[in-house]
Specification:
365 residues, four-stranded mixed β-sheet, alpha/beta
């Protein structure tokens, strides 16, 4: 055989085989086309997943018609016999009369062969005890106004134990909300008796209070933050500013503009999701930043600078306001209008570079 050449019979065999394959391929294409035409593509099953429409509320399970003797005894001994004492404890913490409600027959169907199946009364009692513990702890942390907030927002003064009725569930194991003026301990329908003491812990109760209907101009988060962060410290900041100006503290007005700023931020897009909780703290920090810049720029030492500031801010009022746009800065600034010094920030820069908002103070005089 000569190198570089193929035998003619090999070539013929290759071509013949290729022809057979090609013909078979054509037949397969024709058969497929025939089937598609005969059955129509529209009859093929869809690969798209089905669409489910979920309801906002979940229908509860039917209540138990009758509980076993052992369960009824546990309900009597652990729940019924302790209910009055639990109500007394809760009422003493909140400073007004409260009642506690739970329907054992409505709760028992969710036992899932767990703790509540045989010890339903103990389970209900534990939920209420956990709630009382959390309310007492948070009242001690946030002060007497916290109890007043609960009394105001949960105006029926009723604590209940119920199944979470939202779908999908808002809580993994349990949580709480305020509905029809009642403070509700809510358990996930799959986890009755799990993490019982956590239902009213801080990260559940505070959002529930914030979401409760209210006609007040500030949300609960904002009010709570102002009480916790702003009010205890602003007097000291005001005194610092008065000292730098050579004024008595009573001659100085600090205007946080909480309601106007809250309304502006609520209707805009703040950069931080938790701005409501931080409203009090950030407002305090803006005035602390003003005092810092006044000291840094020698307001208390340079008589000319001090006189210039007092002349410009003739009303001795220092205010914070949220505006749509800034006059000259990127994050925060100070401007003087009608004898008032305004610290300004935009919704999307609120809380950013707070200490430098007043760095151009002397330039504005």
């Amino acid at each position: 055989m000569v190198k570089g050449r193929l035998r003619s019979d090999w070539i013929f065999g290759y071509k013949e085989g290729l022809s057979v394959v090609t013909q078979k391929s054509k037949h397969l294409q024709q058969d497929l086309q025939h089937h598609l035409v005969s059955y129509h593509i529209s009859t093929l099953p869809s690969t798209r997943p089905p669409t489910f429409q979920s309801s906002d509320t979940m229908a509860p399970l039917p209540p138990a018609e009758k509980l076993s003797l052992a369960v009824r005894k546990n309900v009597r001994d652990e729940w019924d016999n302790n209910k009055a004492d639990l109500e007394k404890q809760l009422s003493e913490i909140l400073g007004t009369d409260w009642t506690v409600e739970a329907d054992p027959k409505a709760i028992w169907p969710y036992h899932n062969d767990g703790y509540a199946k045989e010890s339903l009364g103990s389970c209900i009692k534990a939920y209420v005890e956990g709630a009382i513990y959390q309310i007492n702890y948070l009242s001690g942390r946030y002060g007497s106004e916290f109890a007043a907030e609960i009394n105001d927002l949960a105006h029926s003064h009723v604590l209940t134990v119920e199944v979470e009725d939202q779908e999908p569930a808002r809580f993994t194991y349990n949580g709480c909300d305020i509905k029809d003026g009642k403070l509700r301990i809510l358990f996930n329908h799959q986890y009755l008796g799990t993490n019982i003491s956590d239902a009213l812990q801080e990260n559940n109760l505070l959002p529930a209070l914030n979401a409760a209907p209210s006609d007040k101009p500030l949300s609960f988060h904002a009010r709570n933050g102002i009480r916790s962060d702003y009010e205890p410290a602003i007097a000291g900041v005001k005194q610092d500013i008065a000292n730098l100006l050579g004024k008595n503290v009573d001659e100085i007005t600090i205007n946080p503009n909480f309601e106007a700023n809250f309304a502006k931020l609520s209707s805009s897009k703040p950069s931080l999701q938790d701005w409501q909780e931080r409203l009090g703290n950030f407002t305090l920090k803006y005035f602390e930043g003003l005092a810092y810049q006044m000291k840094y720029q020698k307001v208390g030492e340079d008589e000319m600078v001090q006189e210039g500031l007092l002349e410009a801010v003739s009303k001795n009022e220092y205010a914070l306001r949220i505006v749509d746009s800034l006059a000259y800065a990127s994050y925060g600034e100070v401007v003087v209008e009608d004898g008032v010094l305004y610290i300004q920030a935009k919704p999307d820069t609120f809380g950013t570079n707070i200490d430098y908002a007043a760095e151009k103070l002397v330039d504005q005089l």
